[in-house]
Amino acid sequence: MAKQDEEMEKAGKPIPMKNHNPRSRNWVRARTPAFTSEGDVVFKDQKLQEVAVKMKNIITQQQAWTFVPDRDWDELTYALGKPEHSGRVRGVSSKTSWKDGFKQDAHTYKKRDRYREEIDSQARAVARDECNIYWSQKMMHGAAVLEPELSYPFDDVTEDTPCKLLIPVGRAGKKILVATGRFIPGRRFHCQDIPDDYAKVEVRTVIEAYWMHALDFPTTE
């Protein structure tokens, strides 16, 4: 594919998926797509086309620094909506380990670093579950039957709302408060779509012990 890209560049034609990482390009090209004169990916299969569009949108967010890939959680994983299975790397090999498939992130394999990332991931899941439960109960108040929604409950919130972030501690299901803030409605930030599972939150207070925890999508504010 490198030779084909080189020939297209010499001919002054746009290179398809030029800004995507190698494994994403391999995954798409393995499914024999067509390419427009502008270099956009075109699939006859609607599901594959949706993945291609999501990947393109995520790359736009990455260029605007509203999306920061983290090892296996890159544009391909987010577009597919499914995490990588251990022992293989999509777009690389079904027999390649994560350590070899994501060599640029080898430093994150230190046990302590990965443990902290896992805790952060669990914290995000807990916060999302807490928010879902709260808003589900609020929406069901006074209603006997409520049709299931495909969107997240907080997508229907139309006004700024106080919120809090909790993280799990130990194995007994206990949770502790890490930060408080203000939920801001809307699915876009600085003209960019917000990734699934995330929401706009203005952090107001942070427990001192957790000041060093990095945000998935930091902003300049």
From TrEMBL:
Residues 152-220 form the DUF8039 domain. Pfam families: DUF8039. Residues 1-23 are annotated as: Disordered. This is DUF8039 domain-containing protein. It comes from Oryza sativa subsp. japonica (Rice). The lineage of its organism: Eukaryota, Viridiplantae, Streptophyta, Embryophyta, Tracheophyta.
